């Protein structure tokens, strides 16, 4: 079975990747709306889905949900049920969504549900709560009409798990993407363990609609081979995602524990409130992580991306290899992030 990178090469997802121009992220100003920005190269296809809604005067909220749903449908992708399991061989998913009025919803550690982002939206819209976890989240999903899917791992998830079981080595570190390119890895540096196993691939996206309203969503199977029950930054409002309609929105990918520790995306938005550009704000958040433990920071990756109310966007990462996908009226391309180390 194809691994995700090979799969991408043969799927429709690959088309925009192959034609996309690359640039090194700096200060960007689209100067217009709408705008959608998402993590990683897989964000190109996600943006295309979101754009269908944004370009038809739809809301940023609907657009980010549609983008996340799109990638959750990819069978052999490290997001959604096709993702990599925890160390017990179970896929547990984390997701959240936030709108321009600071409404938000999230699910963490949810099993056998294909579209956690849509469950997160239901939590936001139908309950007085923000986060539902585990069995309770699953029960809520089923009560709201989401089908319970099979426990079976995807082919790629199963293969990776069987490989991992050989050593059962617990590596709670999101690796650095700057590894030697391997055949079939796609156009950008891969995010793989040394043995070739990909260990993360969170989809986070933020958007501004034609009315200038901001929203964001995140969906992930989290860190591969994590301890069962571990929750990363992705479903935590203020860590993996934050939206403030007066200022901007930000999302993250990488080692969630480090992002949670600094309330990463909230911090990015607060830096933008102080007047920093999206790129500067992301950089300052990365610096905050590195400052706490510079030696540890050398061993891990975190990347932030952000947009502000002016339609400017930017990103920054601790290590080389983070990429973002950007779609506006003026562009449809990948940007390689600048990095600290
Ligand atoms: N941030 C995610 C987590 O810690 C992983 C990732 O971004 O790939 O679960």
Number of domains: 1
End-to-end Cα distance, whole Å, is 35 Å
Bound heterogens, unique: aspartic acid
Widest sheet: strand order? 1-14-13-3-7-8-4-5-6
Coarse shape = globular
Helix content: 25-40%
Q: pLDDT average, as an integer?
A: 85
Give the helices and strands as they follow along the chain: HHEEEHHEEHEHHEEEEHHHHEEEE
Number of strands: 14
> Approximately what portion of the residues adopt beta-strand conformation?
15-25%
**CATH superfamily, called what?**
(Glycosyl)asparaginase
Output the CATH topology.
Glutamine Phosphoribosylpyrophosphate, subunit 1, domain 1
What structural category characterises the helix and strand content? alpha+beta
Name of the CATH first level: Alpha Beta
Number of H/I helices: 11
Rg, alpha carbons: 18 Å
Largest sheet: 9 strands, mixed
* Reported CATH architecture: 4-Layer Sandwich
Q: Which regions are unreliable across 5 or more consecutive residues at pLDDT < 50?
A: 1-22, 175-199
């Amino acid at each position: 079975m194809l691994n995700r990178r090979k799969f991408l090469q043969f799927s429709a997802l690959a088309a925009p990747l192959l034609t996309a121009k690359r640039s090194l992220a700096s200060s960007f100003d689209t100067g217009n709306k709408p705008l959608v920005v998402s993590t990683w190269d897989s964000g190109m296809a996600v943006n295309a889905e979101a754009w269908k809604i944004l370009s038809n005067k739809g809301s940023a909220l609907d657009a980010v949900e549609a983008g996340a749903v799109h990638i959750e449908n990819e069978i052999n992708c490290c997001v959604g049920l096709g993702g990599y399991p925890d160390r017990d061989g179970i896929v547990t998913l984390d997701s959240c969504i936030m709108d321009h009025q600071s409404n938000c919803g999230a699910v963490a550690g949810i099993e056998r549900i294909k579209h956690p982002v849509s469950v997160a939206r239901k939590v936001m819209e139908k309950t007085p709560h923000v986060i539902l976890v585990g069995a309770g989240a699953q029960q809520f999903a089923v009560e709201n009409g989401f089908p319970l899917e099979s426990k079976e791992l995807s082919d790629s998830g199963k293969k990776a798990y069987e490989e991992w079981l050989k050593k059962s080595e617990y590596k709670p570190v999101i690796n650095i993407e700057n590894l030697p390119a391997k055949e079939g890895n796609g156009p950008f540096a891969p995010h793989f363990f040394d043995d070739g196993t990909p260990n993360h691939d969170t989809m986070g996206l933020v958007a501004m609609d034609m009315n200038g309203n901001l929203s964001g969503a995140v969906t992930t199977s989290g860190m591969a081979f994590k301890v069962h029950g571990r929750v990363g930054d992705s479903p935590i409002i203020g860590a993996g995602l934050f939206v403030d309609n007066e200022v901007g929105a930000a999302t993250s990918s990488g080692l969630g524990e480090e992002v949670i520790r600094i309330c990463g995306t909230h911090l990015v938005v607060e830096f933008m409130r102080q007047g920093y550009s999206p790129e500067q704000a992301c950089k300052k958040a990365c610096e905050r992580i590195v400052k706490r433990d510079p030696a540890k920071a050398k061993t891990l990756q975190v990347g932030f991306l952000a947009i502000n109310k002016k339609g400017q966007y930017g990103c920054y990462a601790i290590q080389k290899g983070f990429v973002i996908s950007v779609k506006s009226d003026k562009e449809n391309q990948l940007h390689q992030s600048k990095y600290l180390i």
